[in-house]
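> call design_seq(struct)
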């Protein structure tokens, strides 16, 4: 799809067409905002679930909870949704709510600059077009930019090389010797699938993850029929799933000792699946359950127990034209290298330049770590709203819940400005500082701070700028209404 011509000026500009961007756009239409556009850098909408189409790609949150509360889907085929179904759901939402005329694909944002003279945002795209916008909502997501490992010589590898988030389905794996770097959330999903095809699979692990069996199963026709006929049943199922997940926050944020007690049963599952004592020891985590993201898979351990699959824990030192080399002096010739090394999150910032009031760059404001007020607004950047911003991610529940809470907050701001005749709002620096100081203090007793691991939740300074350190219903309560007292207002230029 070619790049479309953009309007010269809009009231609201939304960036990104994943769950965040679509949720905001849907509620803009519901609230009577029609002068808005949504920019998507790719040829098709979908965000994370468009890009991550590796074999076995699926969500680790149950289907009924990993969907909008206002748009239940009684047609889910499994307890846990797979990538294709999630992408179909996203496309359905965009069409059902009339968003397609507002969406402009192949329009990646290159820069945002606040024009103080106009009190508007100048949004420049990679196609060279510029749009003036009164308000900008960024829904670029935290899992959108693959993290590439710094392995010397990797660019010299002569075989096929790709990241799991940019899976190359044109590379044949049957009978090949394939190296997989990383044992995170993506790898534990695709490794069991490709292990059925390859001649040999070499899995390079830095830190073993905690892996629990995934209680997945198909949803039969009678269940789906019941959800269609009696929507209340699906709402009750969603509510039950929500509370089953929400109660886990007690261990993550209040009493990590509860998680340490649960480790015994998880290790029992590992011992049941892996009989080889050496391999079992290599797969045993040495940090508290929950310090890194807990992974769900009923097929990962059985895949590693197969004779043509080998696990290597010696660090990779460099790559060469024919493979990888590890610190124990062993060369590993391979045909294909697949990087399951996750995403840039804690230190990533936004994927484009953002210049606010008085020329301040967002990357400068965040030089000591990303921070925002309620994960949504940043001092010095008027009418810029961040979806899934700093400290809004979760390790125990559905991000859709957080996205809907943030959307309500942003829409209250936009509707309030319209009702009050206010041109723009900007959070006060002292408010943001107090909020984040209290947030980081609440982070201290959590498992992410005390669990003895180094995770992608932490930035270079060791601060957790990623996760919300509490219950999701507490976040929803704090964002239940837009708190005008925390903001300064800007008038429109004469």
């Amino acid at each position: 799809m070619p790049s479309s011509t953009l309007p010269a000026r809009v009231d609201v500009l939304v960036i990104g067409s994943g769950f965040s961007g679509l949720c905001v756009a849907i509620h803009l239409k519901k609230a009577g905002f029609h002068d808005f556009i949504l920019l998507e850098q790719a040829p098709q909408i979908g965000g994370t679930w468009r890009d991550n189409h590796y074999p076995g790609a699926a969500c680790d949150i149950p289907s009924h909870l990993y969907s909008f509360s206002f748009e239940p889907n009684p047609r889910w085929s499994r307890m846990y949704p797979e990538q294709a179904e999630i992408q179909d759901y996203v496309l359905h939402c965009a069409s059902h709510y009339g968003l397609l005329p507002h969406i402009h694909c192949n329009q990646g944002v290159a820069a945002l600059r606040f024009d103080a003279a106009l009190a508007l945002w100048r949004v420049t795209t990679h196609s060279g077009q510029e749009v003036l916008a009164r308000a900008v909502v960024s829904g670029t997501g935290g899992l959108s930019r693959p993290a590439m490992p710094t392995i010397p010589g990797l660019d010299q590898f002569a075989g096929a090389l790709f990241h799991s988030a940019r899976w190359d389905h044109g590379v044949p794996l049957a009978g090949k010797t394939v190296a997989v770097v990383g044992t995170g959330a993506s790898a534990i999903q695709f490794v069991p699938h490709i292990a059925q095809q390859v001649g040999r699979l070499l899995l390079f692990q830095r830190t073993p993850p905690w892996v629990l069996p995934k209680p997945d199963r198909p949803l039969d026709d009678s269940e789906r029929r019941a959800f269609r006929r009696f929507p209340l049943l699906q709402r009750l199922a969603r509510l039950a799933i929500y509370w089953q997940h929400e109660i886990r926050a007690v261990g993550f944020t209040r009493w990590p000792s509860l998680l340490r007690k649960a480790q015994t049963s998880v290790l029992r599952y590992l011992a049941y699946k892996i009989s080889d004592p050496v391999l079992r020891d290599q797969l045993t985590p040495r940090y508290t359950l929950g310090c890194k993201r807990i992974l769900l898979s009923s097929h990962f351990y059985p895949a590693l127990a197969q004779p043509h699959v080998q696990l290597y824990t010696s660090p990779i030192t460099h790559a060469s034209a024919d493979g990888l080399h590890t610190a124990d002096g062993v060369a590993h010739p391979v045909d294909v290298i697949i990087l399951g090394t996750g995403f840039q999150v804690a230190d990533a910032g936004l994927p484009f330049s953002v210049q606010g009031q008085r020329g301040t760059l967002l990357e400068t404001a965040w030089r000591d770590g990303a921070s925002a007020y309620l994960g949504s607004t940043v001092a010095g950047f008027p009418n810029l709203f961040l979806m899934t911003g700093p400290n809004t991610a979760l390790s125990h529940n559905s991000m859709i819940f957080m996205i809907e809470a943030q959307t309500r907050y942003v829409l209250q701001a936009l509707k309030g400005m319209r009702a009050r005749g206010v041109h723009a709002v900007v959070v006060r620096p002292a408010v943001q500082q107090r909020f984040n100081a209290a947030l980081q203090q609440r982070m201290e007793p959590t498992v992410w701070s005390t669990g003895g691991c180094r995770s992608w939740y932490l930035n270079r300074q060791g601060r957790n700028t990623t996760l919300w350190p509490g219950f999701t219903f507490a976040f929803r309560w704090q964002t239940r209404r837009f708190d005008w007292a925390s903001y300064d207002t800007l008038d429109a230029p004469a």
